[in-house]
Amino acid sequence: MICPLAAWSSCAYSTSAFSKRSPNMSDDTLFQSRRAFLRALPVITAGAALPLNSASAAEGKHHWAMLVDVRKCIGCQACTVSCIMENAVPVNSFRTIVSTYAVTQEVDGHTQVGTYVLPRLCNHCDTPPCVPVCPVGATFKRDDGIVVVDGDRCVGCAYCVQACPYDARFINHDTNKADKCTFCAHRVDAGLLPACVETCVGGARIFGDLNDPKGELRRRLDAAKRTEPNAVKVLKPESGTHPNVFYIGLDPRFQGRVEGQAALWRPSEHGG
After folding, report:
1. Average pLDDT by consecutive 10-residue portion of the chain (272 residues)?
2. Closest CA to 267 of 81, 46, 6, 29
3. Which residues contact 132 (CB under 8 A, 6 or more apart)?
4. Is 120 exposed, middle or buried (0-12, 13-18, 19+ CB in 10 A)?
5. Phi, psi of 14 (to 5 degrees)
6. What gap in Å lies between CA 216 and CA 157, rounded to an integer?
């Protein structure tokens, strides 16, 4: 039995993990990710044959995507907190979060209870269902694959919120506009990693260019597929949206799960 413990808008987290870095930062996965990402920025590459259906960006352009290694995620919510701080996300709303589930299973006649964590964010789909439903064209996909919202155009109708199969959009109650993860496009445009990747304690999030065959993202994806044909997964593949957020180590039972209940933590309830 799987019981959802934390929703997109509620979670339990530890701030100590957010404020500390590994003492061996030079060997840390996060550091290597940053170096590889920055090296790739000046290079304009032609899109080689990509191993995944969603890798269909135009040649000669970046096609930004993210890989989440669930095996390395410790559920610390450092990504959630850094995203809130970086993007001024209003109270009790989230652009990214790590949903936590309680898992009960029978092993050798004994009941075992554990937890399962699932990092979630906008999937920046190649076929985003949020785009065609927008009556004013406020939601659109950039040439580099990032799906964004033009706040000047958005009228807050929430059609895109309803259309998203990943529960990744919300109406910002400070602006009354649609809001979501943008891969921290303002940081990417400045040559920086998204805030959630920069602060991931376990190095579970890798960000990069699918059109760069030598980049860390493509190398990780290709290596995983060589090891096991079905090692790389996406959420809700049956939706046909062709997401650009990929998962390694994702339990198939959670591939279609994006909902959650039973809030454990809300900023407003703890002086936030």
Report:
1. 43 34 45 49 32 42 96 94 96 92 82 87 98 98 97 97 96 96 97 97 96 95 92 95 97 77 45 44
2. 81
3. none
4. buried
5. -115, 120
6. 39
